[in-house]
Amino acid sequence: MILCDGQTLILAIPYFNDTEYLWNTGDITSEIEIAEAGNYSITVTNDCGSKEFPFPVELNTDCTSPFFFPNIFSPNDDGINDLFQITPKNVSITNFEIFDRWGNIVFSSNDNLTWNGRLQNQQVEQGVYILKINYKKDQTHISYVSNITVIR
Fold it and tell me: Across the chain, what does the average pLDDT equal?
């Protein structure tokens, strides 16, 4: 797991009745909030026995996003927020794709980082869409997945 510098992270395991939890920090709950990197672990004990689960946490001092994009836009031709656009920051975007909730590709581009909210020249339905961005940073190919919302 990665912890961004200056942030906290919640380490958790599902809660079950009649189960004891013991973190190597001394906490006895099913989840803890941490602010430092390190090797965390939890021992879970119930009638069947005990099992230890490791949670190694590394510190990342550069958690800035490699690009910016809005999480919502309104392609209703009113001239305000009509386009979804990705703005890269020191990375090379090789392509991006947008999928509907059934996994069908709604939009794909290798060079245009803007989508007008249309599929085959028809406005897409209002709703949540999956966004996949493939990019290259320092000669490493990386995929990033998020979602965007289309409102009318």
Answer: 93
CB atoms within 10 A of CB 131: 19
- Quick check: helix, strand or coil at residue 150? strand
What's the CATH number for 67-150? 2.60.40
Q: Tell me how far apart the alpha carbons of residues 145 and 24 are, in angstroms, rounded to a whole number.
A: 33
CATH number of 2-60: 2.60.40.10
Q: How confident is the model at residue 38 (pLDDT cuts 50, 70, 90)?
A: very high
Look at the block and give the residue holding tokens 């090379």.
92
* pLDDT (tens digit per residue) in 127-142: 999 999 999 988 889 9
DSSP letter at 48 equals T
The pTM score is 0.61
Candidates 97, 96, 92; CA nearest to 139 is 92
| Ranges of CATH 2.60.40.10 domains, the chain | 2-60
Measured distance CA(52)–CA(9) in Å, rounded: 20
Rounded to an integer, what distance in angstroms lies between the CA atom of residue 38 and that of residue 133? 31
Q: Where are the beta strands (DSSP E) in 5-139?
A: 9-12, 20-23, 31-34, 38-46, 49-60, 67-68, 72-73, 84-85, 87-88, 92-99, 105-109, 114-115, 118-119, 122-123, 127-137
